[in-house]
Amino acid sequence: MKIFETHAHYDDEQFDNDRSILLPQIIAGGVSPIINVGATMRGTYASVKMAEEYDDIYAAVGIHPSEYKDFNEETIGILRNLSKNPKVVAIGEIGLDYYWDKDESVQKFQREIFKRQIRLAKEVGLPIIVHSRDAAKDTFDIINEEAAAGLKGVVHCYSGSVEMAREYVKMGFYIGVGGVVTFKNAKTLVNVVEDIPLTSILLETDSPYMAPTPHRGERNDSSYLTLVAGRIAELKGTTAEEVVEITRNNAFLLFGKVPKDNE
Ligand code: NI
Questions:
Q1: 263 lies in some domain
Q2: 139 within some domain
């Protein structure tokens, strides 16, 4: 069974020297499909281009909260047009990041562009990929308000509490789990994975970031997802194969535009 990689950034410059060699290797090694996630406008265009180049790669389009300077009055129209591309399967990554931006007016702008991109996702019928850092409550409140109207998505690189994870699961949201779950000090995330059902978990790397143990601090890539699946299996008392299979099904349910015959 192939691994469904739900979150990577292969447009990152850290892959500039070997992208065209590495990607076919990763895919041949059993990772497919891969969702490449935009964060800037440049990264969004690069993700769509990569998705057009590789059968196994799909794209998410959106502006990351820390990249708010990329957002202007034309942005929603551009994202709307891109979302018509059959290989664009989500709006992301979008959300709130109060860790890097402490300024209240910036945080307010982040909330505004988060909501505008959520509204676009609802309009075009795509799920959202959410980034949230030091902003758990505001992120939750905004999604909670919108989820009632049928919004679907994943909280990527989940770092919140067990209680909040349960609430997201109740709303039908997925919890994105990556390399952090292998870290020795990842107590809260370990508790979250133990607590929520496997049917609410998605596998992701956030490559080139967040490499799992024993590669912590190195450049990450999707071939390390076997380590993440292994750790989740340990925590759930099951096999890595079952983790791969169930999370793959979860991803196809959420990202409905990805054709299932990809297997
Ligand atoms: Ni990311």
A1: no
A2: yes
Distance of CA 8 from the midpoint of ligand 1 (Å)? 6
Is the pLDDT confidence value at 66 over 60?
A: yes
In a domain, 193, yes or no: yes
pLDDT tens digits, one per residue of 110-127: 999 999 999 999 999 999
Closest CA to 235 of 153, 152, 175: 175
230 is in which domain, residue-wise?
Answer: 3-254
In angstroms, what is the span from residue 105 Cα to ligand 1's centroid? 24
Q: Which of 157, 164, 169 is nearest to 207 (CA)?
A: 157
Q: How many domains does the chain have?
A: 1
Residue 12 CA, ligand 1 centroid: distance in Å: 11
Q: What is the pLDDT of residues 20-60, one digit of tens each?
A: 999 999 999 999 999 999 999 999 999 999 999 999 999 99
Residues 6+ apart with CB under 8 A from 135: 95, 96, 97, 98, 107
CA of 50 to the centre of ligand 1 (A): 16
- Angle at 53 (CA atoms; ends 48, 55), nearest 5 degrees: 100
pTM of the predicted model as reported, rounded to 2 decimal places: 0.97
User: Has residue 192 been placed in a domain?
Assistant: yes
The CATH number of whichever domain residue 15 belongs to comes to: 3.20.20.140
Between the CA of 46 and the centroid of ligand 1 the distance, in Å, is 14
Query: Residue 55 corresponds to which tokens in the numbers above?
Result: 């059968």
Using the mean position of ligand 1's atoms as its centre, give its distance from the Cα of residue 9 in Å.
Answer: 7
Query: Which amino acid appears at position 15 of this protein?
Result: F
Distance from residue 245's CA to the centre of ligand 1 (Å): 23
pLDDT at 182 over 60: yes
Per-residue pLDDT at 263: 52
Q: How far is the CA of 148 from the centre of ligand 1 (A)?
A: 25
Ligand 1 centroid to 24 CA: how many Å? 21
